[in-house]
């Protein structure tokens, strides 16, 4: 029972980084901008977190610096993909390769060294004392509660209960129509492209400061791509994205626990579980009936540059 409890506990913790990066990608895509650079952004966020932790020995200052790196990356990406209107796919891939390369270069002195500060579990009074369930759900670090509860509620309210959210969704669906009613398409896309990159770098920082507690080359190991897949697998619905994140966190936890406790399973198989499951479950939308297909479509103007003169 302890093994199962630990697996479920680490599923929630491990899935937090995936969910955070997926929400960042969701925000960007809702405005019509596809960002395939999550892998590089998470790598930069992770290495920034470990460097800042050693430099300042402050957990929250480290996270603020990670956010600052995300803002800089977001500005560069938004200028390229939104203002200059370069190909969004190529911009994202460039960020992936550049981010991974820079992270591995500047992170070499810190490789394999435990972070001097990291997030500690916080037990929720009364609820954490519930047998089994209390330990799994109510003895996590503070970012877990923010990622799974507070952030999705805020995002859902803003996007589906406010005029601003309607404007952003309009930009993602039909930028020409949004521009015709006075919505600044470029501004909306610029802001949400930057916001998406901030969440991507934060996801990398979360892995170092909340789950792994160390940096190593290849730490992200494809999790940025899994986060992008979560958006598609969740069909642009926050609740499905979160549940998918927990599931893939569980798959990642199986691989970690299996190697930590020397399960009689090849490490190659354990390491590949996450990616095999990602491929398998990405096929799921193909089985959705045509009757419900409209509910599952991506924003109509996704990955489409906006030229006002063409309206």
Quick tags:
single chain, 12 helices, 311 residues, mainly alpha, 68% helix
Outline, from the CA principal axes?
Answer: globular
Structural class: mainly alpha
Number of strands: 0
Instruction: Spell out the helices and strands N to C.
Output: HHHHHHHHHHHH
Number of helices: 12
Residue-averaged pLDDT, rounded? 88
The radius of gyration over CA amounts to 20 Å
Helix content: 55-70%
Strand content: under 5%
Protein name: ABC transporter permease
Main location: membrane
Keywords: Cell membrane, Membrane, Transmembrane, Transmembrane helix
InterPro entries: ABC_transp_permease
Short synopsis of the structure:
By secondary structure, the chain is mainly alpha-helical. 68% of the residues lie in helices and 0% in strands. It has a domain at 17-120 and 160-236.
Written overview of the protein:
With 311 residues, the chain is mainly α. It has a domain at 17-120 and 160-236. The chain has helices spanning 2-30, 38-56, 59-83, 88-106, 133-138, 142-161, 163-173, 175-180, 185-212, 223-233, 238-260, 267-282. Helix 2 packs antiparallel against helix 3 (59-83), helix 2 (38-56) packs parallel to helix 4 (88-106) and helix 10 packs parallel to helix 12. The longest helix has 29 residues, at 2-30. The mean pLDDT is 88.
């Amino acid at each position: 029972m302890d093994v199962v409890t630990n697996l479920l506990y680490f599923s929630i913790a491990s899935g937090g980084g995936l969910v955070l990066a997926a929400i960042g990608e969701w925000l960007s895509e809702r405005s019509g901008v596809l960002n395939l650079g999550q892998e590089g952004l998470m790598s930069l966020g992770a290495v920034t977190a470990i460097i800042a932790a050693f430099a300042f020995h402050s957990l929250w200052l480290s996270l603020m610096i990670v956010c600052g790196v995300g803002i800089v990356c977001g500005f560069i990406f938004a200028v390229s993909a939104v203002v200059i209107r370069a190909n969004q796919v190529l911009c994202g891939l460039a960020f992936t390769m550049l981010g991974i390369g820079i992270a591995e270069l500047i992170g070499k002195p810190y490789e394999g060294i435990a972070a001097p500060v990291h997030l500690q579990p916080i037990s929720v009074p009364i609820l954490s004392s519930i047998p089994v369930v209390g330990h799994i759900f109510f003895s996590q670090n503070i970012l877990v509660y923010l990622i799974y509860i507070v952030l999705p509620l805020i995002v859902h309210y803003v996007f589906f209960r406010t005029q601003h959210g309607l404007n952003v969704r309009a930009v993602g669906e039909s930028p020409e129509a949004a521009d015709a009613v006075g919505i600044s398409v470029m501004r909306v896309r610029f802001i949400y492209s930057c916001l998406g990159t901030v969440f991507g770098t934060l996801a990398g920082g979360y892995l170092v400061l909340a789950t792994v507690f160390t940096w190593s080359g290849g730490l992200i190991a494809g999790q940025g791509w899994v986060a992008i897949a979560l958006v598609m697998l969740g069909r642009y619905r926050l609740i499905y994205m979160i549940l998918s994140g927990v599931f893939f966190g569980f798959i990642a936890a199986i691989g970690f626990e299996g190697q930590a406790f020397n399960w009689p399973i090849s490490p190659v198989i354990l390491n590949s579980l996450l990616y095999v499951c990602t491929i398998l479950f990405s096929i799921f939308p193909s089985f959705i009936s045509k009757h419900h297909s409209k509910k599952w479509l991506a924003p109509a103007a996704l990955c489409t540059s906006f030229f006002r003169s063409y309206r």
